[in-house]
Amino acid sequence: VLIFSSRGINFRTRHLMQDLRTLMPHSKADRVCEMKNCNKCIFFEAKKKQDLYMWLSNSPQGPSAEFLVQNVHTLAELKMTGNCLRGSWPLLSFDPIFDKEPHYALLKELFIQIFRALQYHPKSQPFVDHVFTFTITDERIWFRNYQIIEQDASLVEIGPRFVLNLIKLFQGIFGGPTPYENPHYQSPNM
């Protein structure tokens, strides 16, 4: 998974990108997707130095999704007590709504392909000690990261956390026909 950004991002976005690179051992930080053998990418786009957009995409054919990122809290800001092994595999937990709507089912598959650690990747550890949760509330997708406590299997939030407001789904990579456009999305300019 290639994780990169446009120019003009702020410090919080840089820290969020670094947090995702830390949590995803199968990620790369370089600019050219095809040269680095990446078939998935996360692209952060800053507009007007205050609005942050995230693109998730499959590299040569698509599909891709554009989100407005809201309520970003990085690992350094949260200062939570939890801790997980660097490079460990995350469990992915999805809200049941992801299986009821076709656009959410497509997003679920995109999230699985991007956030699931590859089993035999050289930087990954064969341990499962944290959970990425994707919950839908108020037509938005809430991302949280929890550590699994071994003694009693309880969960402790470790961050980062952010909220994704879906704008559009595209059939191609960063464009093309749009099979879904969110009717509840309102631009930050409005």
From TrEMBL:
Residues 1-175 form the Brix domain. Its main location: nucleus. InterPro entries: Brix, BRX1. One of its GO terms (molecular function) is rRNA binding. GO terms for biological process: ribosomal large subunit assembly; rRNA processing. Keywords: Nucleus, Ribosome biogenesis. It is found in: Nucleus, Nucleolus. GO terms for cellular component: nucleolus. Pfam families: Brix (PF04427). Belongs to the BRX1 family. Required for biogenesis of the 60S ribosomal subunit. This is Ribosome biogenesis protein BRX1 homolog. It comes from Neopipo cinnamomea.
